[in-house]
Amino acid sequence: HLLSMRFQAGLLLSLLLVLRSEPDPERRASVLVAPVSLLANWEAEIARFAPDLRVMVAHQSAMPLSELGSVDQDRLDTVDLVITSYGSLLRLPWIAAARWRLAVLDEAQAIKNPAAKQTRAVKQLDSQSRIALTGTPIENRLGDLWSIFDFLNPGLLGSAKQFGEFTKR
Fold first, then answer.
1. 101-124 burial by CB neighbour count: b if 16+ within 10 A, else e?
2. Which H, E and C letters describe 22-39, residue by residue?
3. CB 3.0 to 4.6 Å from 158: which of 101, 118, 132, 162, for a disulfide?
4. What is the pTM of this model?
């Protein structure tokens, strides 16, 4: 599982470095949403394998609350990647309001419940592209997979109800 996580991280960091080198007239940063327990791991991976990436960790463990609540577009223009937690996504309106180049979910099974607040918040992110990283896309039932695919490509598998009816056949 560690190799899989390292491989996923390596691919993502490579993509972010390529995107950074390409012209982007809108100059959008990317956002990575992960469980709180993995924020430091992501910082360490970036420091080790992609130290040129300009990163901001949008979490109270890394920034004072006063600064965390007032991030604006000028600040976002100075970074390549914002790393945040699922909980911070719910508490920081500027994350939902920003326009992102890439929205990445780590441990994407965290959005398996389509009715959960964090799932709805993640699906509202305005991004040019989306990526879901997970080692366990299906934890309990096939319906877990629907929500991840609905984040990646809304409507591809129909509604949750349609998908549930199809998988019962």
1. bbbbbbbbbbbbebeeebbebbee
2. CCCCCCCCEEEEECHHHH
3. 162
4. 0.91
pLDDT tens string 37-77: 999 999 999 999 999 999 999 999 999 988 998 899 899 99
Which residues, 6+ apart, have CB-to-CB distance to 96 below 8 Å? 89, 121, 124, 125
Tokens of 89: 């996504």
Count Cα neighbours of 143 within 13 Å in the Cβ-side half-sphere: 14
Nearest Cα to Cα of residue 31 among 94, 91, 74: 94
Give the whole-angstrom CA distance, residue 83 versus residue 31: 6
Determine contact, residues 42/106, Cβ cutoff 8 Å. Answer: yes
Residue 53 contacts residue 6 (beta carbons within 8 Å):
no
Asked if 3 and 37 count as a contact pair (C-beta separation under 8 A), the reply is no
Calculate the CA 95 to chain-centre distance.
11
Cα 139 from chain centroid (whole Å) = 19
To 10 degrees, what angle do helices 160-168 and 143-152 make?
140
